[in-house]
Amino acid sequence: MNLQNAKSPEVKRLLSYIRSFELYKNVKSLDDLSKHDLEIFMKMFQKEMKKYGQKIESKIRDLDYDALVQVDELFGLEKRKIEKQWQKYFTNERERELWKKYVGDPEASFNWKDAGYSAVQARNWRAVGVLDPAQAIDWEDWGFTPKEAKKWFEVQIDTPEEAAEWEDFGFNPKEAKKWIDSGATPEEAVEWTDNGFSREEALRWLKRGKSVQDALKIKKRKEKNA
Q: Which of 70, 106, 116, 169 is most exposed, with the fewest beta carbons within 10 Å of its own?
């Protein structure tokens, strides 16, 4: 089936189905579907399959086999394009296969390699949610490994500057998160602990809107009147 044959009944029905999705309502021909379009289309289709189950079959029942085969051909074309990208960025087959295994995308792989990372190093950073090599470099500049950065991500601290500041004051990620939730800065947290207050005690004072000095004065007065 010719992609350019827009009058083909099979193409028309296939396009009609694709246009039923909001993002694709303006698609004029199958040629308009880029790799990105196809990926979104498949994700949306799979989402509807999960939602409607077998009822989704009514939407594709009228699609001729040739039209469905053409979709497979489109995906085959995209695969060939992607393979050409791999060969463009990685001429060494062994290296290429390594990046395919650990990263999976040719452009992303090239960006990580260009930033000085190996496939395994890129895999390690991506595994903790860092998809941009520049972000990984930033965390490494501040002395964090992927494993260490992950601990800070888990407590919603996503910049190495903030993580380093708390760490430099002697706080681990979980401790830092509790202080942050109470509204304290690293300096204030250290001030509380240096004055003999446990974190739990300090948090109780902070919830009352009291500073370290307030707490010390009140504590001293209570001891005097005891």
A: 116
Contacts of residue 23, Cβ cutoff 8 Å, sequence gap at least 6: 40, 44
* Burial of residue 225, with CB atoms counted within 10 A of its CB: 0-12 exposed, 13-18 middle, 19 or more buried: exposed
- Going from N- to C-terminal start, the domains of the chain cover 1-89, 91-127
Token representation of residue 155: 């407590």
* Sign of CA pseudo-dihedral 191, 194, 195, 199: positive
**Nearest by Cα to 101 from 34, 93, 77:** 93
Q: Residue 178 and residue 172: Cα distance in Å, rounded?
A: 10
- Using a 10 angstrom Cβ sphere, with 0-12 exposed, 13-18 middle and 19 or more buried, the burial of residue 26 is exposed
Contact 112, 89 (CB under 8 A): no
Contact 125, 147 (CB under 8 A): no
> pLDDT by residue (tens digit) across 205-214?
888 888 888 8
Rounded Cα gap, residues 121 and 87, in angstroms: 21
Helix (H, G, I), strand (E, B) or coil at 153: helix
Q: Where are the alpha helices (DSSP H) in the chain?
A: 9-19, 35-52, 57-60, 65-89, 93-102, 106-114, 119-127, 133-141, 146-153, 160-168, 173-181, 186-194, 199-207, 212-225
Q: Model confidence over 113-153: pLDDT tens digits?
A: 999 999 999 999 999 999 999 999 999 999 999 999 999 99
The C-alpha atoms of residue 153 and residue 170 are separated, in whole angstroms, by 18
